[in-house]
Amino acid sequence: MDRLRRVKPHSVPCRVMPNQGHGGYSPNPCQPPRLGQWQQQSYAGANMRKISAAVFATCIASVTAFAFFHSSLQNWWHDHESLIDDGDGDGDTPPDPDFWITRNTYPTGKFDPTWAAQAAVEERAMTAAIPAGVKTYNKALVPNSPLTLLPGHFVPLGPMPENNTQNTYGSVSGRANVIVVDPVDPTIAYMGSDGGGIWKTTTCCSLTAPPANTTSWQVVTDVPEVTGLSISDITIDPHDHNTIYAGTGDLNFGSFSFGAVGVLKSSDQGQSWRVLGTDKFSPYYAGISGVFPQYQAIGKVIVDPNNANNVIAGTKTSVYFSYDAGENWTGPCYTNAYATGGTPQRQDVTGLQAVNNGDGTTRLYVAIGTRGSATPVQSDLDQNGSNGVYRLSAIPSGGCPATGDWALLNSGWPAGTGNGVPQLNFGRIELAISPDQPNTMYAMLQSLQTSPSTKYQVLGVWRSDNAGDTWVQKASNNGTTSGSTNNILGCESSSFGGGGQMWYDARLTVQPGNPEITFLTGYDLYRSTNGGSNYSDVTCGWGTKPTGTLDHVHVDQHALAFFPGNPDKMLIGTDGGVFYTENATSTAPLPSFRQLNTTINSIEFYFGDITANFANSATPAIGAGAQDNGCSATKFTGTPTGPVQWTSNCSGDGTMNKIEPINNVWFNSSQYGSLARSLTYGNANPLSGSFSTASANTGGTWGGTGDLSASIFAMSYDIYKWGVLDAPGSGCTTAGGCNHMLAGTNRLWETTDLANSSATTMRASWKARTPNLTKQNLIIGADNRSYINYVAYSFSDPTVAAVGTNDGNVQIVFGLGTAATANCPATLPATDPNCATAVNVTDNNNVLPNRPIFGVRFDPQNALVAYAAVGGFNQNTPGQPGHVFQVTCSAYNCPSFTWKDKTGNLPNVPVEQIMPNPNLPQQVFAGTDWGLYYTDDITVNSPVWYAFEGFPRAMVWELVVDRGFTTLAAFTRSRGAWAWPLPNAAVGTPVADLSVTNSGPANSTVGSNVSYVVTITNNGPDTAQNVVLNNPTPAGLTLISVNGDCAILPCNFAGIGNGVSKTTTITYTIPAAYSGSNPIVDSASVSSDSSDLVPANNTASVNTTLPGTGADVQLTISAPATAPPGKAITYTYTVTNNGPAAATAVQLADTLPPGLTFASNSGDCTSAFPCTFGTLAPSQSKTVTTTVCVPKNYSGSNPIAFSGVASATSSDPVTSNNSANTTTALITDVIFLDDFESCP
Prior knowledge:
This is DUF11 domain-containing protein. Keywords: Membrane, Transmembrane, Transmembrane helix. The chain is mostly beta strands. It is built from five helices and 86 strands. The protein has a six-stranded mixed β-sheet, with no helix packed on it. It has a five-stranded antiparallel β-sheet with strand order 1-62-61-60-59, with no helix packed on it. A hairpin with a 2-residue loop joins strand 36 and strand 37 (about 575-580). The longest helix is centred in the first third of the chain and has 12 residues, at about 115-125. The protein is elongated.
């Protein structure tokens, strides 16, 4: 049901309106056949599939509530404590820890797991389908394009992998949290990604360079049952290598980690999956009352080596036990007495190991390793008094072990370990046990010490050789070990001590076959060959690639797996994907690694863009910004049918690429508003060229003090790319390209000089065009989170744009597109010529929910209609639910507006982005935290939304269309970029028969208004691209108004679909002293970038006569029908003024036929032609008799043609009678010779 409200804001120029206030067939009924195995049926242009009600009910009973991981982002940029580079070598600058949580819990800061459960039911009831419309794309129509798109579903474009040239890492993919190798068949390995699901290879592994390397990965969790794509751990059942368990969620102490959805289980090596423990493993972590919510994660999963039915999970809330192979779970089971009480201590499980006692029982080791330092979001992370290693002598047969059955193994550890009092010197603990000598154990402690400066590095490595009874510190990072100053050496200073984020990177492993060799992950991979006493850096990710290694290993290590029977073969997982070595123990040279990322499509994108006419172009290109892996792009060549390699063009955390479509000016950006530009990059093939700074330099970067660019990790930008080329006011010219660009901080910035060859001039051209557009109420401590999330130009008018803010505002901005000379003041005066007119249409959030606005877009054909994509959950604004809203302004500057809720049957999950199909404006796409949805008719009160068939259940942060409207591109978190050819798009050379009609009065009078109705119709077959209506004002008239589908002339339409008409009414005033032509001629013409089938109907005109004005000058002629040669011929002209006005400067001109001789004129003109008569009164005539001679030997045309033209300087309402002609035939009839005069 629509909720409508009409309001009249106090809109004044330059003033912001104030605020008021988501394999084969499986016997599991919850797994339908995979895409392609369903029989396709056509329903009104959409191919749909639907799970039966019975199967649906069965699925609901067995499948978890969708994790809030989709609406909560992963441990964004590792939740560092300061806004400085973290020194990990990728140049990223992490945001404050509360940065992303506000995006999803504002305004209450709350989340309840039941909300996700309810949304899961809503989503499961939806139909998966393909959007309606004419599927015009056919590869045969675009033989020069290297792309092979598919009308039936999205095609992944990559990066697969990304070629990270900024840090010499070569081919990289997204973060790999865990890797395991099949113990029976080492050609099989599994990788768990951060948000991209589980990937499997059956061709592992090779050091051969790509493309000859045969290691190929495929994602195995793109099935309806698996709603959680963030994987923290994978374990293979030691009793049956076909059985796999995986822990969901992201246990790396990020502020806003992906939440758990349960334990995944496959009994057929990943071909099918079940989700277990949904009643126990909620996404929600029950933190402290009154603070931000936190999220559960199953960081560890193991199987009892003595009993396949015993499965143990380690989570953020301690240990859980299953005694029936994961079907049912008991927990949380605490290892200590400090989990409850007055000041409960956290129970984060960071280590979990099971050891066969040799008597049929299994002992269990658990490391409680809470990070140890609070953040604004995770305010209890400093409650680490339970941190330590605990041992359970035997796994029980059921239930939770008693707390007293656990032994704290703290002999030799720092004083106070595990005594219930928060520790000031260490946090996270990683645990490793030698598989060959299980009494030998190692533990790594993360440092919290600030003196010496080792905070978040390794405090030390401890070893036990008696199953944990006693421990000895072996390696240190503070010089306390005798004879050593530092035992954990990096290749560079930043990687000493493991680097400064061991709460995030840490993992410890003992090499099979040698209990003296251990590997420790941190910024880099560190190896000890002497029982943990000394560690050396073997990957050197932040510096120069080690001599002898094949590929430079990406920084931030998370995973390590050895191959059965060969401990020199090892896989490691990093923030840049998977790497492999076959000489893990080599010391000189260091181990040589090969990247295995060429078939992994798991890059984590923010915003991206595609080049113009993407599906038709011979050189289509795409670019985007990615977490941990900078900005990257590719220009397609060959015949790709799927994802390809991209190459990086900025370092750090990339956030955006924007592409100017005419001259290929490229922009990229990294964190906190760091914008760069290249004038040459996009025109190179392959893409290449340098980028230079392009951020505003007026008053400091993006305005300096008071402007929030330093608080916005991923700033939003937009280029106006839709204007008809070289049309007045379109913003796009052949010479300058599309030159208008926006940026959003807490104010809206604009440049109209984006392509200026001078970087200095271009930077200076940025000007703030508005004051603060936010509520300014989202402040956490000293940090202001009231900023703009997204900016977008209108499709049809470069002077109009919209912004959506983090604190729930939508503002429509008018009057853009002109160069400002200074910044609009942060606080407006009454008027300021540098300020555009920003109209706050939020309306006190009476209809629009007061939750973060993630995306804004306009109707493709109407700059007064816009859409808002709303984040968060309805429960936080119970009076204003919904996630997709449409606002309609009544006129330019939005004197009044109407909101409509267009959420329909969308599930209650954050909507990240919105995009209408410019070829079918009623078809709208929504990118959400659970994947991609669409509706074929946004115009109805409650639209029906569908899940896009075959699209992965990945978070969609950006949706873009190209100039030319051929393609929709989706940029995802953890599954790269995807593209789909839009319905009703012009493929190949667009063909459209445009016709224009013009209707108006036949008569009018001076001193009155006259109106003409001009209608453009596209008779198809394709959408007409970049349509221009021209209707020049007739001379002497004054243009009064242009109404209807056009508001100005010339009128530009980005696209007009097949069968669509556009009607415009044009009104003029006829002055009382009108002296123009009579009749008035109003002429309309239409043109486009498309090939026109019938150009003859591209123009239309109307004549309007003005009685009482003008002089109708008429000419007649008479001549004999025959005449002989050698005689004179006489013919007569009569010039008559039929009125009604006097005819002035009347003149008669005659065309003498070739071969004849002029003899004389008589009557009212006795001189040679032309004859002039001066002024003729109404009804007055002038007669001229002309004599010419025909020679006897005349050989010219016969009959002879005589013609003349009369003219006057006065207006002539009937010009068709201004000329006259006749003929005389030559004969030789002697009877009549005497009737003709002889030639003189």
